[in-house]
Amino acid sequence: MIFKRFYDDTLAQASYLIGCAATGEAIVVDPNRLVDQYLAAAEFEGLRITGVTETHIHADYLSGTRELSARSGARMYLSACGTPDWQYAFAADPSVTLLHDGDEIRVGNIVLRAVHTPGHTPEHLMFLVTDGAVASEPMGACTGDFLFVGDVGRPDLLEKAARVEGASDGAARELWRSLQLLAEYPDHLQVWPGHGAGSACGKGLSAVPQSTLGYERRYNWAFEPASEDAFVTMVLAGQPEPPRYFGVMKRLNREGPALLGTLPSPERIGEGRLAGLLERGEVVVDTRTAAEFAAGHLPGTLSLPLNKSFANWAGSLLPYDQDLYLLMADASRMSVDAAVRNLVLIGLDRVTGYFGAEALGIWVAEGRALLQVPQVSVSELAAEREGKVVVDVRARSEWDAGHLPGAIHIPLPDLEARLEEIPEGSEVVMQCQGGGRSAIAASLLQARGRGAVANLAGGYGAWVGAGLPVDIPPGARRGAL
Fold first, then answer.
1. Burial of 228 by CB count in 10 Å (0-12 exposed, 13-18 middle, 19+ buried)?
2. Class of domain 267-365 (CATH, top level)
3. Catalytic residue among 20, 142, 201, 432
């Protein structure tokens, strides 16, 4: 058996190529949209991809199942389990085979057996993988978003991301029952999860790439509760707010993502056209660091630093129905393609053009002024709160664990829709845990015409570290720094 793991750091997402060396066949489990990587790996190993499958309808990235099938001719194997509302709309495609609990996919000598494991989603499948050339029992399992290293998939996404009211409790109970199914499998069964640390599909995922069922039984918190009710309480407690784009991904992945073909190749646009774009209100994203943006940026641009969080905040803050333009610190084709790949992973395909950082110098040379984002220290804010409005853009769970007295709470993904809640005529200080999210928030306010906007350097962590007062609701645990 040939086994290869692929991992996308920006999404904390894992996918797997499993091949039979004897027959040259292979299957890919949970591919993302960048399918060239699977095709190249298969070619290198002397394999042809004959099958592609996924554990469930994903919420955090756009699936590459249809893309890979179109490029390779592979058959798609998709779950037929779950409720009618959460089944694949393109199931009638002649290249689709629907899977029920216990169904098997044969790839040469390798057998993948589907096990229905609802809870994270109603249709979720786990795949037990047996290398039939040497064994008659499974070596491991592609557990998708059911079982992670150190955690389990969150059961509240249908309610929070897809707006299925009241779904969380029932899904949590399904997840408990799915965990009980694991009792029949041996400790040596390897666990190959669909995500690692940093994913919003759970609340405490480990960075370790794989585990064993025996290890998880001993050290994964989800196996500790002695009753279903206790598990439900624990699994639903402290789940972070999902990124806003998760609902879009669920819908597109259920309907069938549009085929990408080749990666979009935006054109480099002459800096002379930039003023016109900004005057028309086009979406221009400044991908430089937060410090570079704060020191000087073009009016109307949004700061989204090109780092590990880029895709997450892009999906939450950028429109899916408008053209996007990028301002790049490094305008090389390699850097531009890296930004584009991040965006298409979550379905933001309308990347039309880009500018180099030289645009800022030309802007100034033509007599225009750059904007800045003032940085306010915690000592400065503590000494002078009069006339200042503090807006905390952290998640609800962070706010509930402790916040600055008198602050307004508006999570960053909700900021655009709730701008009217921020009083006019006062200096606004944006604040998060460490200063990163609030820097993005400050850029959004400035892009929407708010003038007196500053960022709290070091955020809540620096405030607490300085021993300054905080409001902590009764019974709440003081937020970790």
1. middle
2. alpha beta
3. 432
